[in-house]
Amino acid sequence: MSDQNQYQAIRILDASMTATNTVPIPLSFLTATAPELKIRIEPIQVRGDADTQSPFLQMLSNPNAISRITPSVISKQGSDLAKNLWTHELDAKLISRHLDAVVHSLKDLPTILPEDMTLAAYVKREDPRDALVMRYDLPYRSLNELPEGFIVGTSAIRRKALMRRLYPTLVVQECRGNVDTRLAKLDAPNSEYSCVILAAAGLVRMNLQHRISAYLPVDKFPYAAGQGALTVQIRTEDESTQRALLRTLQGGCSSPVGVWSHSQWRKQSVSAIKASDCSQVHVLELGGVVVSLRGLDEVRDHASACVDSDADAERLGVDVAGRLLAAGGGEILEAGQKIEARECVHVD
Question: Is there a catalytic annotation at residue 108?
Answer without folding.
Answer: yes
